[in-house]
Amino acid sequence: MTTAESATPVASDKPTDIRVLLKDLQARFDVFRNYSPLAIGIDKQLFAALPELSKKSVRLAMRSHTMATRYLREMEKATHRLNLDGSQAGEVTDENRLHATELLKERFKKQAEQRKATEAAAKAEALKQQKLQQLTEKFGRR
């Protein structure tokens, strides 16, 4: 990430900067590209490898990455966490796997609820249009 990118003060630019940072991390490190469970404290490894990164950018990028559905799915079935170089860095506990599963269940439940609400709104709109059409036909003949 260049100095200009990390110094951008506009809040609306931040998500783009984070996406750019994540794409860069995915290009550089297999553990990011594969959404592998990351070692606890991997941010220190990132700062050692890429000292130009800001703490805030790394924190936001890590949050985005570790909350991604693909990462959570990997956490559900993983047994080990990995360092930047791909070496094992500890175990993924049952508690970690359970937490990932719960987050995914909540996410999918919210998506299903949103889908149902959208479908209900579409049905209500179709019914409204149908009734308007019926009224137009009924009173438009005279």
UniProtKB/TrEMBL annotation:
ProQ/FinO domain span: 13-120
UniProt GO BP: post-transcriptional regulation of gene expression
UniProt GO molecular function: RNA strand annealing activity; RNA strand-exchange activity
Keyword Cytoplasm: yes
Parts forming coiled coils: none
Tagged with keyword DNA-binding: no
First and last residue of the signal peptide: none
Protein name: Osmoprotectant transporter activator
Keywords: Chaperone, Cytoplasm, RNA-binding
GO CC terms in record: cytosol
